[in-house]
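re the bet — no i am not wrong, look at it urself. input seq straight from the record:
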Amino acid sequence: MVTPRTYNWRMLLQFCSELFIRAGISKQDADIIAGSLVEADLRGVDSHGVVRMPIYLKRVEKAMINPHAEMKLDMDLGHMCLLDGSNHFGAVIGQRALELSVERAKKHGISLIGVKHSNHFGTGAFYVQQATAENLALIVMSNASQTMPPTGGIRPFIGTNPIAVGVPTKHDPPYLLDMATSVVARGKIIVAAQKNEAIPEGWAVDKEGNPTTDPFAALDGAVLPLGGPKGYGISMFIDIFSGVMTGAGFGKTVNNMYENWNVPQNVGHMFIAIDIDRFMPIEQFKDRMDQYIQDIKGEPKAPGVSEIYIPGELEFYRKQKRMKEGIVLSDSLVKELSEIGTSYGIHFEEAQAGG
């Protein structure tokens, strides 16, 4: 039986950052990557949290990520740019794209930043939160390796290609939609496999296309699109915008970070930022957003429902709770992180206890 343990988020952040530094990554970049992972755990998106530490470090060790790469702009029209990530860490590339998005949107009113030659960049919420703090609206999308069949198929062809949207508010938590285009993120199936737990029916199929609750059979098979053909269609447009349009990999040419050890992933992203102040004074907009949210929350509730939540609100409160009480990690993940820490001369257990 898996026994969860609780870890202080600051200590966990320090541990992860130090691991990256000892793996040869600059402190600035190590802090960004570690921050992305711990932020996911704080928000309750455990599939994109420190559970990704082992694969990130292994990709560096196997020279599948170049942490010393020089990113460059292949195209710069001011409001529109194409960033070549040069196979650096996805979170570092994503952070650079976010900074460009904010800077250019404030200057031009809107910005569109395409990204190629990237890697897994964590959660879209990591970037969206930073944009809403700057009073900007942000849309972020990314493609991913093949884990989902097209509707009517059984073999993985497209990724769970996520999209995130953020809009600032005044008093309420910001509107923050962050979702995969599959029924569930594949990372949640990976977590279930690590815990040796069954997955709900409807999440995935095995390699023959049969429904399965076995996480290992699901990982050998495919996750299913959200809403059937609708999720498939959304995932495809994200692949077009992030991959086909940017010059990154798309469809079969986005490489799997767990399975392909011959060539880099070549993931693509797209960042679209809007300076809301160009439409109306930002404070007026945020007042309108708060009114909109309160109108939604005032709607009649279904039986058994105590409150209507907006996208991102539950994660907002979960983060506040976990910052105080700590982050829960499974024994299997603790064991893996402890072994990695030992190999780099760091004691993982120092991160335990408290919030």
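see?? The mean pLDDT is 95. told u. also Residues 90-108 form the longest helix (19 residues). so pay up
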